[in-house]
Write a structure and sequence with these properties.
Elements (H helix, E strand, L loop, with lengths): L104 H16 L4
Length: 124
């Protein structure tokens, strides 16, 4: 018997819980908060509703990043660029020093400009 396929139109991935693949919600629970359609992370809630890991520092309710702490309390890496005080995003660098998920800041600004131009286009 061949494995079941995801019931989402156009998807050929193997189905899991509820007839959906992992990308379309199979094997994942929704947030318990009424009206929220996000997937739960911890304790049946999404990160917006308190489901993500919290900083271990007493009295802090920010999200934990590294070793159980938020960036303020030592849970983040600083940028490797000498003199920079920002936190690293990718490969030990902040966005200003090459740690952006984009190849360079030009691509980022072009995409942002294109997005804004499309948003400002009016249909008459």
């Amino acid at each position: 018997m061949p494995p079941k396929v995801c019931k989402t139109a156009g998807c050929n991935k193997q189905a899991r819980k509820g007839g959906l693949c992992h990308l379309h919600g199979g094997n994942r629970a929704k947030c318990k908060m009424e009206g929220c359609n996000c997937y739960s992370k911890r304790q049946g809630r999404c990160s917006a509703h308190g489901g993500g890991a919290k900083c271990e520092k007493e009295g802090c309710d920010k999200g934990a990043h590294y070793k159980g702490f938020c960036c303020t309390h030592g849970g983040g890496y600083k940028c490797r660029q000498e003199g920079c005080t920002k936190y690293a995003q990718k490969e030990g660098m902040c966005c200003d020093h090459g740690g952006s998920r984009y190849k360079n800041n030009k691509i980022k600004s072009i995409k942002l400009h294109t997005f804004r131009a499309k948003a400002n286009t009016r249909i008459t």
